[in-house]
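Sequence in, structure out. Go.
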Amino acid sequence: MCRPLFRAGFRAACTAMWMVLVGFAVNAHAKTCWQSVSTSAGPASEARTAEGRDASTYLWLCAADSLSPKHREHLAAHIKPLVSITRDAVWIIDPGATFQQGIKLANALRTLEPSPQARLQAGHRLHIINSRALAEHVMASDGVMRRFNGKAMQLAALPETRKLMQRRCKTCLQRLQRELEQTDARGTVIRIPDSVELTSSQQSMPFVAHAANNAAIEQDAWFHAHDLAWIWTGMLLSDDMPDLQQGQVKQRLAVLDQFSALHAAKADAVWISSMGPVHAGRIELERQYFLFWMEQADKAIENGMGPVETLHHLRTLDGPLRASNAAMKLRHDLNLQRMIRQAEDALFR
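Output:
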């Protein structure tokens, strides 16, 4: 009689110990997925904002874990959501590309301190912000929201970003499904942000929201902490080749001027792009990049070159931030084509 009971107890104890060890390993791995946002002057993760709100801010580094190895060079693997936790809300900027990424991000939140889970259980609101109408940034919203089904939630974006998502998200999702295939894109669906404007939440946000670019064609949101401990630039500044997308060079330069002013105001601020921390020195490098190539495009068009001839001419020139790999070369080439089109528009307007 005792022996079977002993075996059963031993088996139960082993099972419990195994679950503890597995849980510890999973939890330890989850914790390595988080990077606290801090400054050289001290941790910004516990910064007190100008309005007196406490905010703990983190980057999630493990988006690639949700993708199969062959897709880990895709942009979807490199987006790093920003999570900011205040006393009365949880804020996520750009949760990522796929349903599975959204689920894993939501599960990883339980390892943070202060606990987002406890805040949501207490009825505080979860805010998810889509910074731009690009699948790799926003399609994980559904996974996060399903994981927290029943909790108070709001999916927000700038007004024109919401309109752009309504127009293009179906096509964006189809492209993402083609590129990531069914294995990694399975379950991913479109969630359009709520009609409430992002700026209407400005008073309660632990950061300040700004809009950039030609809103009718492309719109980006960028953010900074109230105390300027960190500035989140989205895709408007990064360590990669600049991506003009459908934006205008003049408007990109205006944003870079704003970044320069913020850097002058707080030299030790942490700069963060959609793909992780970025050095503030990139601000001037990207200014020089756009100024140089736009000037060359203007000169060529003014001298009577056609767009194709101008593109061939620009490809022979050396300038700031030359491409070092095939992906950067392609993006640089697309930037040149857009700048040539803008030079033509300016000349013949």
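Check: Residues 1-8, 10-29, 39-52 have pLDDT under 50 and may be disordered. The longest strand covers residues 54-60.
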